[in-house]
Amino acid sequence: MEAPYIVIIATGSEITAGRSLDTNSGWMANQLFELGWKVKKIIALPDDPDLILSELQILKKLSESRPVLALMTGGLGPTEDDYTLETVLKLSGKKSYSVEKAKIRLQRIYESRGKQYSDILPTVIRQTHVPEDCKTLDNSVGIAVGFMESIGVDSYLVCMPGVPSEMKEMFTRRLTPELKRIYPRENLVQKTKWLWNIGESLYQKDFVETHREELFEGVEWGVTANRGYIKCIFQSTDSNKLETVVAALESQYPKIISDDVFTFVHEELISKKLTIAVGESCTGGLLGKKLTDPPGSSSYFIGGFLTYSNDLKQSLLGVSKDTLDQFGAVSKETAIAMAKGISEKTKADYSISITGIAGPDGGSDEKPVGTVWIGIKSSDGSIESHSYLFPGNRESIRENASNTALFLIYQSLKQRKV
Amino acid sequence: MEAPYIVIIATGSEITAGRSLDTNSGWMANQLFELGWKVKKIIALPDDPDLILSELQILKKLSESRPVLALMTGGLGPTEDDYTLETVLKLSGKKSYSVEKAKIRLQRIYESRGKQYSDILPTVIRQTHVPEDCKTLDNSVGIAVGFMESIGVDSYLVCMPGVPSEMKEMFTRRLTPELKRIYPRENLVQKTKWLWNIGESLYQKDFVETHREELFEGVEWGVTANRGYIKCIFQSTDSNKLETVVAALESQYPKIISDDVFTFVHEELISKKLTIAVGESCTGGLLGKKLTDPPGSSSYFIGGFLTYSNDLKQSLLGVSKDTLDQFGAVSKETAIAMAKGISEKTKADYSISITGIAGPDGGSDEKPVGTVWIGIKSSDGSIESHSYLFPGNRESIRENASNTALFLIYQSLKQRKV
């Protein structure tokens, strides 16, 4: 069988009106990519049954010439702008029925809240309905049942809830096994490396163009720009070729290369039983937030200080008035004094300080907006500081600064290992 | 003229492979909505010239029967997977030329970095190219020039860079005036209110269904679920009708209704010259981050404490060992002691503490995952605390907790006004 033509559809007027960001489609695309399938198109449509139906008819038509897999999220909720079931019934000419198992589950949920079945609103019961003769996809998180409707030879329309936690569980546990059973997959291997503070064009010129003939035959490459780093992605059916490319990349950029720093820092701090504390000025808590995103971070993150004002830099972290007056709040000396203060107050193995000018105001000729100093006290007691001039707006500068702080922790942990 | 059929297209394999989230399309959709136009479809396509061309051909065809406006971002960069210009030339059968003004600008940028024109890579110069006989859209942030190509009667394909800061500036300053000149707009008025800790279904049943006949003739409504709150949106061509709906909503939900709390808290703290400080446990910095997102937050946010560990709750905020032993870290008593500690150490007018169980571990029968206590010391010296049981996963609980903390600040500031 030919690889399926995969289309992801998100429905919701809140998406097409720009009030809400569709994160489901990207998540699914990534999952599919890792499973060996490529998405041809991602579509978002308003809650308009005519527009949705006409899009589904195009896909049904397309399935006459090749296998089509359409994955649709949203529109299975209880409100009147939820049109998915109705539209699919129109497309197929079928009727719907209420899935017994889902009805029982709904009843139990209501009983556990001390309510009766008769309390359940009809609009809520509608969420247990699916078209006749389709494959149902159980929802173990929420109420709405998903389903997989045949729309042609080897072609399916999959409908799932728009609530991310429900969709993800359904996709992973119910849908993925079905898709693996039905569709052939490409046996691609992928490697990703991160390079810090380098532009995409320069990377392409200096690495990809330079090594094109010797390294890139049978290897696809891609690059995505992120805040502070670019992700260099390589794919091939030949894992040896990938190893060679990555080795060349490592030898060309030894000082700015890393793996996923978020994952590494998290795992390394846990496995080495090390602790970390922060002191943030311009990032206002963003570094602490990033360090505590993963479950289990309480085993290393003990806390820290948000010293946005100069008064708090003095009273909480013991930065001297002299240092602030002489060198300014955004300086090597302040970054180092902050790192020392964090370490003294928390006794953490690693202490990271960030002080900078996130803008849009507060810049000068000498210290323009984007100037950031990061101090790091490592587990061996040494204190380093690094200065940066990050590009972009306030949000970009704050993201750059906190990501780069994680890269510095990464490097310090790596050196520790050796 | 009929309203244009608006399609937004984002190109980029990083989007269709799920490695990067398309935030441009939603931003544009929102801008267009506020200008009085509705988007019919948002599409993301991989960097595949054939797929892009075939999509553009469909839109060109559609423009034979009605005005079409296609807004495309991405693919104008310097790397070899940037296909936009090439594809548009194929669609139109035109040639391209380098825009003189953009070339001079590029030269100045290079000179300001101490480089010569001859240093500029040809791939970078390519970014100054546009199709012949099109309307160019200057880029005052980056290098790539945007353009607006006629694809039929009253129909245009607009190509803009994928870098958000470049696209936004170009959209607002260059494109919007053109669109206003060309297309008629719907004169819709919109009102948005937020309701806290209530589900969409219940809102629909209790408010929309109940008042449908008396309130909703000529008024469209929509609702989006967010972390901690739902946004209730109403639209009409008649602003009096909107006022009536909003008044009814306020009278039905006086205790849980708010405007955009992020904007209100920011503006109110600035205009009343009040200061705020935080003490965060389970949110790890997220509340501080949210408070410092907007420029100008340094006039009210003085800083705070990330007391993730119990040791730091004691040593930094003076929460007593007795309190922690007797009531636990997640308790009314600890939340209040934290708020007191923040206030004493920072002298801020408002002190907010958050302590909770973000999970997935650490829950118990008595205090399940999602249990969060928030303490707030207001400018009049009073201290309150509130407990919540937030739904969802770790990320959801942290978002819920920090948003709800902002709602509590909102309420306290509102009461202060009276």
UniProtKB/TrEMBL annotation, chains A, B:
Presence of keyword Hydrolase: yes
MoaB/Mog domain residues: 7-182
Domain of life: Bacteria
A GO molecular function held by the record: hydrolase activity
This protein's UniProt keywords: Hydrolase
Gene3D superfamilies for the chain: CinA-like, MoaB/Mog-like domain
One Pfam family hit: CinA
PANTHER family, per the entry: NICOTINAMIDE-NUCLEOTIDE AMIDOHYDROLASE PNCC, NMN AMIDOHYDROLASE-LIKE PROTEIN YFAY
NCBIfam families: PncC_domain (TIGR00199)
Family: Belongs to the CinA family.
Protein name: CinA-like protein
